[in-house]
Prior knowledge:
With about 260 residues, the chain is of the alpha/beta class. The chain has helices spanning about 30-40, 50-55, 75-80, 105-120, 120-130, 150-165, 175-180, 185-195, 200-215, 220-230, 235-245, 250-255, and strands at about 15, 45, 65, 85, 90-95, 95-100.
Amino acid sequence: VAYGLEALEWADVVFVPGYRFPDREDPPEPVVAALVAAHERGARLAAISTGAFALAATGLLDGRRATTHWHYTRALAARYPLVRVDENVLFVDAGSVLTSAGAASGIDLCLHMLRGELGVAASNHAARRLVAAPYRSGGQAQYVPRSVPEPLGERFAATREWALHRLGEPLSLQVLARHAAVSPRTFSRRFAEDTGYTPMQWVTRARVDLARELLERSERSVERIADEVGLGTGTNLRLHFQRVLGTTPSDYRRTFARGE
Length: 260
């Protein structure tokens, strides 16, 4: 670590890494004070895995939803009962404070933050460098039941990859299930377990993500982009943009277009 606690006086984002035996004692008071001061001046605080215990010690998670590694979720809830601990998600974005499950989920959280700060193209570039999935929903389960047959996981991953190259084409539940060679009902259930989304929610978000990248990297019109990504019309694209991202395609382009 290149800096001491003085870095918390200027950092825009403060990451709290996981540490051993977080349930045995609170972090040192200077650490707690520095975290609180950083939050008060507007920094975002993000905990990786058991780093959530340090954030909880500040009181900043009181009344908020948060998570940590599944092995420690009960201990976190017992030690800090005011925290609304969710034991079955990859990460939780509560705005100014964010928490994630295990170390791999910390990568998901970081990519999620990159998407919000720098756009989807930058996040996807980082994911490729890390050989990581470009995006996993924070609501995805930390683990799936052992009774679930694992071979389907690879089959469904292949179907998702296949769909990503055909977003401009009609992609119904039946089409996706046929590619995975399972019934629509089985596909829907397993897909939600794997990704945290229903198949159609996932397709819509994938199309919005592709639209985001085209808005960042090209000067194509909103209408043309909507047609290319399979959302049909500019009106439909604007509707999904507002619902998923809380902004418009035009405002998004002004914020993230290359060179701005």
